[in-house]
Design brief:
Blueprint lengths: L8 H7 L26 H8 L14 H14 L3 E5 L2 H9 L8 E5 L4 H8 L8 E5 L4 H7 L4 E7 L1 E2 L4 E2 L2 H11 L3 E4 L4 H4 L9 E5 L13 E5 L12 H4 L10 H5 L3 H14 L5 H11 L2 H21 L3 E4 L10 H7 L7 E6 L2 H11 L4 E2 L9 E3 L11 H6 L6 E5 L5 H15 L2
Parallel strand pairs: 2-3, 2-4, 4-7, 7-8, 12-13
Antiparallel strand pairs: 1-9, 5-6, 8-9, 10-11, 11-14, 13-14
Helix pairs in contact: 3-12, 13-17, 15-17
The chain binds pyridoxal-5'-phosphate.
């Protein structure tokens, strides 16, 4: 089945990118566990290496199992093409790599996954890149942060850990006016809850490790290109618009049009950075995505119940879930993610740091892990773990202060989750 815009999400999540195996008729996408592919003859090999023909050369670049997942991700996000890679963090580097260069910067939201704050505030400096962190609810501040060296704007649709919701359209309009791409990390929302390209995003990145795979088995990442950005318009993106010396002066934007970013991601990004997804990981993620909408519906229904119960409990100071009417982001749910505000939120516990640690230690169904988006309910004390490398100011800005825990609600019975939280809170606040 090829991309059919007429098919609904539930059909695409099962079928997009997957066709019966041409050699055997196998109905499930086979795991093509191979490193290399035999060329028909020397001319075929030369055409592949010159990017004159599309095909399989070597699994650092392309693999049929991974290609099926790429096609499915592009279909679910409504993009022109997608590249998969080894992790969500790899996807972020792969997304920025063609855009940035020494001295260039990315304007990023203050409300991001802790690992992304560290990657952007520390590690990318080694490439001569930098990030400017801004509160994305302050549109004037976003505009003011953009300068001649800005090459991208980066934010999360539903932000980890607090579950805050970004007004993607408002920030996309600012990016459009400045002639720079907007990159949305859609990990927490998934394309079932939010399709950032429909709100004006240029690129979407994912940690497929989370809800997409869904059961905590493999790490992976994806970059989906809307295919709508004109990379040649401003002269700011020479990797995509100017001749590429490693391909005999080929210009990606001119040659591949809406697929320029995707082809560059494979032919230069994966070829030279080597952050490749392996076919086993692609298989697990394809299997997970088949049930994405069913799981997300249950994740959201459970999160709504658990967050509402926590909010009225006397031992709790606050719950950040945007699906609660008390949330300042409640009004954005209908606009940005109408099927629900996700399953991720933070809870401030009376008793602060000590009570949080005791809560985490006394839960029985919830697992204390540095992950989210699993079928299982998960909890973590961000300030002592994922957000540990951040300054106290960065922790507070990210919604991960010492007195809060982050919860990722699974697909178990909501009543069992509430009972578990109830008994652990009793011990934590005794
Ligand atoms: C987990 C996560 C990442 C990083 O993904 P990995 O697969 O762990 O590298 C990036 N962004 C968000 C929102 C995440 O939750």
């Amino acid at each position: 089945m090829t991309d059919q815009p007429t098919y609904g999400f539930d059909t695409l999540q099962v079928h997009a990118g997957a066709r019966p195996d041409p050699a055997t008729g196998a109905r499930q996408v086979p795991i093509y566990q191979t490193t290399a592919y035999v060329f028909r003859d020397a001319d075929h090999a030369a055409a592949l290496f010159n990017l004159q023909e599309v095909g399989y050369i070597y699994s650092r670049l392309t693999n049929p199992t991974v290609a099926a997942l790429q096609e499915r991700m592009a279909a679910l996000e409504g993009g022109a093409g997608a590249v998969c890679c080894s992790s969500g963090h790899a996807a972020q580097i792969m997304a920025l790599f063609p855009l940035m260069g020494p001295g260039k910067n990315v304007v990023a939201s203050t409300r991001l996954y802790g690992g992304t704050v560290t990657q952007f505030s520390q590690t990318i400096k080694r490439f001569g890149w930098s990030a400017k962190f801004v509160d994305f609810d302050d549109e004037e501040a976003v505009k003011a942060a953009i300068d001649d060296d800005t090459r991208a704007i980066f934010g999360e649709a539903i932000a980890n850990p607090g579950g805050y919701i970004m007004d993607v359209r408002a920030i996309a309009d600012i990016a459009d006016a400045a002639g720079i791409p907007l990159i949305i990390d859609n990990t927490s929302a998934t394309p079932y809850l939010c399709r950032p390209i429909e709100h004006g995003a240029t690129l979407v990145v994912h940690s497929t490790t989370k809800f997409l795979t869904g059961n905590g088995t493999v790490t992976g990442g994806a970059i989906i290109d809307s295919g709508r950005f004109d990379w040649a318009a401003s002269g700011k993106f020479p990797s995509l618009s100017e001749p590429e010396p490693a391909y005999h002066g080929l210009k990606f934007a001119e040659t591949f049009g809406p697929l320029a970013f995707t082809f560059h991601g494979i032919a230069v990004g994966l070829r030279d950075l080597g952050m490749t997804m392996n076919p086993q990981a692609a298989h697990y993620t394809l299997m997970g995505i088949e049930t994405l909408s069913l799981r997300m519906e249950r994740h959201v229904a459970n999160a709504e119940k658990v967050a509402a119960w926590l909010e009225q409990d006397g031992r709790i100071e606050g719950v950040t879930y945007a699906g609660l009417e008390s949330s300042p982001y409640f009004g954005r749910v209908a606009k940005v993610c109408p099927k629900g505000a996700g399953a991720l939120f933070t809870v401030a516990v009376k008793g602060g740091y000590d009570a949080c640690i005791k809560l985490v230690d006394n839960l029985e169904i919830f697992s204390h892990v540095a992950n989210l988006g699993d079928t299982r309910s998960l909890i973590i004390h961000s300030a002592s773990t994922t957000h540990r490398q951040l300054t106290p100011e960065q922790q507070e800005a990210a919604g991960a202060g010492p007195g809060v825990v982050r919860i990722s609600i699974g697909i178990e019975d909501a009543d069992d989750l509430i009972a578990d939280l109830d008994q652990a809170l009793t011990k934590a606040t005794a």
